[in-house]
Amino acid sequence: MEIKSILIKDTTKEERMRIVAEGLSQCGGACDFCNGCDNLGGGSIDSFYEPYINGEKELRELNEEYRSNSGMVH
């Protein structure tokens, strides 16, 4: 299934879950406590993306927060 938009208003929760899973699987490994993506081994990626999956914050907002926190997931 091709998703044309990743905005909350244009996706279902299931589609957002798939978007996050596909995005995170690009490196081929498990994410929690990984050093990849400059996470420096801190935090759970799943919980970081929950606000997007639950329709509370757009991916853009979460990515901005990630960058402003020096790449640390809390």
Notes on the protein architecture:
The protein is mainly α and 74 residues long. The protein is built from 3 helices and no strands. The longest helix is centred in the N-terminal third of the chain and has 12 residues, at 13-24. The radius of gyration is 12 Å and the shape is globular. 9% of the residues are buried.
As a percent range, the share of strand residues is under 5%
- Mean pLDDT, rounded to whole units? 77
SSE class:
mainly alpha
User: If you compute it from the alpha carbons, what radius of gyration comes out, rounded to the nearest whole angstrom?
Assistant: 12 Å
Low-confidence segments: none
Largest sheet: none
Helical fraction: 40-55%
Principal-axis shape = globular
Give the SSE string. Answer: HHH
Count helical runs: 3
- Count every beta strand, where a strand is a DSSP E run of 2 or more residues: 0
Could you tell me how far the N terminus lies from the C terminus, measured between alpha carbons in angstroms?
31 Å
